[in-house]
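Batch job 17 of 40 flagged for manual review because the log was empty.
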Amino acid sequence: MTALHPLRRRELLASLGAGALAAAVPAWARPDAPRKMTDGVALIGPAERQARLERAQALMVKLGLSAIVTEAGSSMDYFTGAQWSRSERPVLAIIPREGQVGMVMPKFEEPSIRQSLSVPAEVRPWEEDENPYAIAAGLLADRKLASGTIGVEETTRDFIVEGLAQALPSAKVASGAAVFRGCRMIKTPAEIALMQVAADITVAALRHTHANVRAGMGPKDIAALMSDFTVAQGARVSFNLILIGEASAYPHGSRQPQIVSEGQVVLMDCGCNVGGYESDISRTFVFGEPTARQRKVWNDVARGQQVAFEAAQIGAEAGSVDRAVRAYYESLGWGPRYKLPGLSHRTGHGIGMDGHEPVNFVMSETTRLAPGMCFSDEPGIYIPGEFGVRLEDCIHLTPQGPKWFSEPPKSLDKPMG
């Protein structure tokens, strides 16, 4: 759309009149609207990234690793600020146990990637006819690290791991998950602050959207309301999953047509990104008057969410949170375990720069909970052929125990809190 000249814009607004303007433009998008919710947000700075690198290097020394390697993605962004999408051309960050970060990237992409790089780094580009893994091996050899153990980030694609192993015949290429998890799983106050803003925006967007849902709407209509509000507040939309009626019984939806009508369950699972950090919140409501069965299931889920919160104590196994919820649900006749009707998925997942991060609230997880860890808390109940209810809010763990990023609603009559 072509922008109007400021003078023409003023003339047009004057011709519309205040009443027409108010009717045409949502309150949150008007010129006199409050500031964006992201205004004044403090992004991750160089000092924080330097502290991350020092933490990673200390862990490498402790674990006997010479270096760690990650390809483009959230871990590269976490340590270096460099933001790039994965493709067939490897972009690698190499963090040695001491000294400066090394970056290996396609030569023609170097200027673009450098724009987001926010730590000092030795950059070694590769031309299209060169072997990028040989370039990476050369960097490690120059640091006298090519015969040690190289830890690779756990989401790095197999062809990159194989390429590194072939180029480093004297090295052992192994999992670097202990270092990456050891850093990323424990969020700092700066990270938690960004996650809090993302959660606040998603809650506000859910309330705005709920107030404007009308009969006849479909998932795309409702998602558009969420997206418009989220973007207007300065955040990036991560996802808006809208499930209506029977589709709500299937945690990630159905291809069947879905239209809002009287008595239908509407499940909204939504998230946004602020400064590289995610929110993930779910709300379930009934359009019109709920049935007694809908109320009971909603109340069972609400209590299950509190059971998970109460179980998420420092020092407990992450799996114990999931086990506590399933024990409660089974006492009510849901399940057992993952059986339907009941809770077919884990009680929650880690969250941070990625919407889903290690570790999970799942029965078998033995990792002990520690301050700074962040999780979703979402023990839904799903009844195939009827409907499902999911309430999801995220928590961060403090030395005193869990704390909500967003307060769960307490009643189906006030489903947005």
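Reviewer: the log was empty due to a logging misconfiguration, but the result itself is present. The first strand starts at residue 67 and ends at 71. Unflagging and moving on to job 18.
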